Amino acid sequence: MVAGCVVDSPRVGTLDIASLELPCLVPGAGLEPARPLGQWILNPPRLPFRHPGWKRTQPIPAHGGGGEVHAEPRATDVTLPASHSAAHEGLAAWRNLGDASDLRLVAAEVLLVGLELRSPVRTAIGVHRERPIVLVRLECLSPNGESVIGWGESAALADTTYDAEDADSVQAQLSELLIPSLVAHAASSGGQLPGIKKLDVIKALGTGVLWHDAGTSVHLGAGPLAWAALEMAVGDAHLRALGMGLAELLGVGGEWVAPGAVVGTQPAAEELMHAVDSLADLGFCRVKVKIGPGSDIEPLDVLRQWAAQRVANRPGEPLPAFQVDGNGAYAPSAVGHLASFDRFDLLCVEQPFAPWDLESSARLASIIRTPICLDEGIGSLDDVVTAVEAGACSVVCVKPARLGGIGPALEVIAWCESQGVEWWMGGMFESGFARAATTALSALSSRPRPGDLAPAANYLVEDLAGEALATRKSEGGTFEVQVHQGDGVGPMPDGAIIDRTIQSQVRVPVVR
Ligand SMILES: [Mg+2]
Known about the structure:
The structure is a single chain. Helices cover about 30% and strands about 20% of the residues. By secondary structure, the chain is α/β, with parallel strands linked by helices. It folds into two domains: about 5-245 and about 505-510, Enolase-like, domain 1 (2-Layer Sandwich), CATH 3.30.390; about 250-495, Alpha-Beta Barrel (TIM Barrel), CATH 3.20.20. A seven-stranded parallel β-sheet has the order 11-12-13-14-15-16-17. A hairpin with a 5-residue loop joins strand 6 (about 125-140) and strand 7. Helix 2 (about 85-95) packs antiparallel against helix 13 (about 405-420), helix 3 (about 165-190) packs across helix 4 and helix 3 packs across helix 5 (about 225-240). The protein is globular, with a radius of gyration of 23 Å. Mean pLDDT is about 80; it is low at about 1-75 and about 210-220. The structure holds magnesium ion. Magnesium ion binds near residues 325, 327, 350, 375 and 397.
C-alpha cells in the first residue's frame, strides 16, 4: 500500500503519490508481472545492482509498510547566483526543452552493445579491455505522424573501477525502474513524452527514496549513470523533433574545441614516449597521464626527457601540456611526495586522493602551486561547492554521467562560471554519440581547459556514431574538433553497428 506516502523534494515540491494520476499497471515486457507503479517505486522486486543510492541500514521489510517516504535530492540545494553567462542561458534552454512538445512516446528500449577498445587502458586501479555500452532508445511520433528516435548513452564501464554503477547495474536500473516509470508517466499523459523539467517527477519517484518504517531505513533508486542515459534520450528526442542540435540549443553552434588526450599507465618508458609522440604529431595540446603510487616520478621524468628531445628535433613546434590523474590511488601520507610535482610544470594534479578525502586534497593544495582538480569526488553541485570552499580543489572535472546528466552538468558549469572556478569536461570512453554532448558542453567555457574529448575512433575499434565530428588542425598546429552540427545530442548511432554488436535488448511499449 502506498496511500499516505509523501515524496518531499525541493526540486519538485511535495507530491502525494496516492494522488498522482499514474496508470494502474506498468507493462511487464518480459521483465516482471505488471504491477502498480507505486510498488515498482516503493517495493521493487529485486535490485541486483549496487550503486551510491543503495544504502541499506536494516533488512527490507516484507511488505510495503505505510511509513513516510522522502526523496533525497541527489543534486543540489545550492542556489545558482543570478548571471547572464552562456552557461546560465544554456541551462535554462536545456531545462525548457520539450515544454511545448507534443511528441508521443510509442515504446522505450534498453540495449546493451559490446564495443572493443583499440588497446587495453591501464590505470592505477584496473585495466579496461572492452567497452560495453548501455543505450536507451525512445521511439516517438511527432504530431504529424513522423517517427522520431531519441538516443541516450550510459557512461557506465564494464566494472566499478571508477563508479559504483557498472554496465550491468545500469541496464537493470533502466529496465526495471526508470524505463517503466517513464512509460507509465507517458501513458498517464496521453502518451506524451515529458520535457526535461517534467522528468523531475520521475526522478523524485524513482531516485533516492529513503524509506522509514519501524526503524527500517532503505535508500532506493537509480544512480546518476543510469539516470543520465534516460535524460539524454529524452533530450535527444525533443531536439530531433525540433530539428535542432544540442550545440545550437546551448548557443555554441559552429564552435571548434581543442581536446586533450589520455594515456593509460604504460609498461615501459619507450611505450610512454611513443604514445605521447603520436599524440603530439596529431596536434593534441594536452596529454593526461595516469599515475599511481610507485609509478609517478619515473613516467614524469620520461615526459620531461621526451619534451627536451622533441624541442631539439622539431624546434618551433608547440609541445602539449601535461597533467596527471591519480584516480584517488594515493594515501593521505603522500601529500609531501605529491607536493614535489611542481617541478614538472603540470596543468593540474587530478584526483590524487580518495573521493571522500577532501582534507588531504586541501593540505596538498595549500603547499603546491600546481592546481588540484577533483573528478571522482564530484558527484553533484553540492560536492563542487563543498570542495572549492574547503580549498580541496581549484579546478573541477565535469562529467555529466557522474552528475546525473546534462542538466546537472550545466548547473555545475554555470556555478563555476559565476564563481570564476575553472572547469573542463571529463571523458569516460564514450561513443562518438555521447562524446558529441560533452564536446558541445565544453564550448561553454569562458576559460577553456582541454577536456578528455579526443574522437571516439582514437580508442574504439568501431564507433557507434554513424558520423564523426569534423576535425582540423589550427594555424598553430593544434588539433581541434567541431561541435556536432546536426540534430540531436550527437550524430545518430549507426543501426548496422548496433546490429553487429548488440548483446541484449528490452522493449517496453506504451499501453494506453
Ligand atoms: Mg580522472
